Hints:
Helices cover 65% and strands 2% of the residues. Residues 1-43 have low confidence and may be disordered. The protein is globular and about 80 Å long. It has helices spanning 21-40, 46-65, 67-72, 87-105, 114-137, 139-142, 150-158, 164-175, 178-188, 194-221, 226-251, 265-276, 282-312, 321-332, 342-359, 412-421, 424-434, 439-446, 452-457, 460-476, 491-516, 521-531, 536-548, 555-574, 580-588, 595-603; strands at 2-3, 373-375, 386-390, 401-404. It is mainly alpha-helical. It folds into 3 domains: 48-137, no CATH class; 146-257, no CATH class; 276-603, no CATH class. The two termini are 36 Å apart. One zinc ion is lined by residues 4-5, 433, 439, 464, 467.
Amino acid sequence: MYFFDWEILIFTEQFLCMQHIKYFWLAILLVFSACKQKSEGNKGDSQDVAFNTYKEGFINDLWNYYPDWATSIGNHTHDGDLVIPDTLFFEREMMFVLINRDSLQQFDLSKLSDNNKTDYYLIKNHLDYIEFAQKELKTYVWDPGFYNLGSSFSYILAENYDALPKRMASFFQKMGNLEKYYYAAKTNIKNPSPLHTELAIGQIEATYSIFEKDFLDSLKVVTLPETLKQDMRKRALESVKIMKDFVSFLKKQDKSTGRDFRLGKELYDKKFKYEIQSKYTPEQIYDSAVARKAFLHAEMGKLANQLWPKYMGNAPKPTDQLELIRRVIDTLSLQHVAADSFKYAIEQQLPELTAFIKAKDLLYLDPNKPLKVRDEPGYMAGVAGASMSSPGPYEKNGKAYYNVGTLEGWSKADAESYLREYNHYILQILNIHEALPGHYVQLVYSNKAPSIVKSVLQNGTMIEGWAVYSELMMMENGYSNPDPNATTTTPEFWLMYYKWNLRTTCNTILDISVHTKNMSETDALDLLMREAFQQRSEAEGKWHRVQVTNVQLCSYYTGFKEIYDLREAWKAKQGDKYTLKSFNETFLGYGSAPVKYIGELMMK
Ligand code: ZN
Ligand code: ZN
């Protein structure tokens, strides 16, 4: 399973490996045979036929280099592989890039279908990203977290996709390369960022138990030859020693010469280009987000003034506008469901959202694809609220779920704080974002034109942008639950929506400021708490996240702005023919491709 929102892991940062040289030659053969097939055809759609063959080969070949990635999206043909990140691998990886670039050049882009055009761009961009990651970004040099194998090992053991003995055999095989793996890691690491080093130490120490407890516990219950069991046990304990040795290597690193955790403008701009794939630069997005923040503050100021007498009576108004807004928001946040009906409230809202989308004719909802709600699975326990799980492209049952958590077991104070954050208003916006017409609806549309390339290399900016755009679209159309008779969104709802939108906007300002403008922790917390009205715990969590990640926090606002701009441009072009429904459906029909390419095709 992989998840939307920030759980969308940046797969490319992980090592996806290639263990046997035979795969390498097989890869070359596959690519060349794809090219050959292409040059033989001469019919109108022959380019598409050849491209379909090529892209399938490309994806299959990708797993030879990046088996952990394959495992994480449900392709289990490479579970036992662990690629050694040594010079030889880097050379092979570059060969993979060069060969595939050459293959792409054999195709006449103008003759491909729209679906294949966007796949072509995604593949080309991914090849550029691999080269950039290896030659310039070099996370494997300065971020020891790169070598945290916890999730790929625990996935094999914990996810019940195959019989336990088979999964344990993969685990056993994978461990076989650990010594060489960490030898290469120690060779690669130079002046690591102290912050990232600290974090990696904690993460790797937390994985020991997967080997010395979980794996050994599984050995007790599985039926396997006794000698093999002994070998497995021995290797698991050796693996822990190897990782402990790596951790002591990390502890010896000189903190005074370590790299800054900030990415720096040059790398940031490039990573933004490959990861976000926007027509805008980070500077343009930054300026746009700063302007959006000013707009939101002005609108919120008007609404808070208007609502003051209704909620605060004759209490004197604070002279500071931001303080005034905060007081009204705090008062509105007291409207929330009770802890024991939190889950029920979320479930109840889904049919209400569906009815609203239909009544306003915002887009077609496939009645054969109702959203499946389930209790939050065990491994997500403690994450209250709601989230979408979408199946990986290879997952057999292939179902998407809306996970809903409960507040059972929470302390009274924690639950109250959480319920105020996800109050009556915000909870509905969360459902709009995650489910209807946000992530879930986008997923249903993208599955109508299935593409393995888009499932694997999906553009997170488009996906998040759609969810954020859909929030505004619902507000524009008068969404104002629970009053079904309301025809326009209430001022209360607008105010709370703006607070939510401010979070997205400030994520972008924060990320660019911290990584390219040297923003301090004090200034960051001031931005989040005073200007974006966040609680201290939320703001501190975000400060942590912005230090250990980069660029991804910009995806929400960038995608939102691009989709909104595209809608306005398309509206002008369509004139009298324009309807909101036609825009939404046409846009979603292109699948999870970068908005700039969808825009080019729509505006053609
Ligand atoms: Zn999202
Ligand atoms: Zn309360």
